[in-house]
Amino acid sequence: MTPVLEVDGLSFAYPDGHQALFGVDLHVHAGERVALLGPNGAGKTTLVLHLNGILSAESGDGAGSVSVSGLAMHKKNLLEIRRRVGIVFQDPDDQLFMGSVRADVGFGPANLGIKGAALERRVMDALEQVGMADFADRPPHHLSFGQRRRVAVATVLAMEPEILVLDEPSSNLDPASRRELADILRGLDVTVLMVTHDLPYALELCPRSVVLSAGRVVADGRTYDVLTDDALMSAHRLVLPWGFDPRSVPIDSLPR
């Protein structure tokens, strides 16, 4: 089966000479939920920004290739790739800028030329998926932080992406909002790549984890195996929260 996301030999240096990625390979198949782990400065954000063409070899000194469902990352394919790969940034206020939730969620599809009843269906379907349909006419700045994050997810879902990329989805959420978002993400019929420092969240939601460190993939396997590899964790500055031991989590409760 052809991966929905193929990253092959991706290297990238910024114009100032900083080398952020060194020959990264990453293949993700449709329906997978994969956590991208690593310390600060590992290159995770640089990698993510290559997945829908925000960064490319042309914007720095780079090599390698990225393709989405067989579409190579070229200028002629950028619009379609950006529809297929939706990125939800860490701060929802980076994505919410209209006067109402409905307008924010409809902004992307409207720019694709979708109008009228078809646009309304897109908007409400996306809001239903994140449990925010009753807030369609609220100004986003009147919502709680957790609600704004769910609306930010809806703005991407309205584009009907194949891949949902989440940057630190659990950060700054209270425990109830964290749980609500986990339940939403489990129920989505979309491939998920989740960048996170929240290792228990990765274990709960993502059967597979990829560890990026100093611009290189240093591990790729079952999240449980990664988090219980003490030597790997120590070598790459991955620290579990105090009191959390993955070995205490029943294996049959982990995602498959």
Summarize the structure.
The protein is of the alpha/beta class. The protein contains nine helices and ten strands.
Describe it.
With 256 residues, the chain is of the alpha/beta class. The chain has one domain (5-93, 162-253): P-loop containing nucleotide triphosphate hydrolases (Rossmann fold), CATH 3.40.50.300. The chain is 32% helix and 24% strand. The chain has 9 helices and 10 strands. The strands form 2 sheets. The protein has a 6-stranded mixed sheet with strand order 6-7-8-3-9-10, with helices on both faces. Helix 6 links the parallel strand 7 and strand 8. The radius of gyration is 18 Å and the shape is globular. The model has no long low-confidence stretch (mean pLDDT 92). Belongs to the ABC transporter superfamily. Its main location: membrane. One of its GO terms (cellular component) is ATP-binding cassette (ABC) transporter complex. Pfam families: ABC_tran. It is found in: Cell membrane.
Total of domains = 1
What's the helix-strand series? EEEHEEHEHHHEHEHEEHH
Largest sheet: 6 strands, mixed
Give the neighbour order of strands across the main sheet. 6-7-8-3-9-10
CATH topology: Rossmann fold
Helix content: 25-40%
Outline the low-pLDDT stretches.
none
Cα distance, first to last residue? Answer: 18 Å
How large a portion of the residues is in β-strands, by DSSP E? 15-25%
Number of β-strand runs: 10
The gyration radius over C-alpha positions equals 18 Å
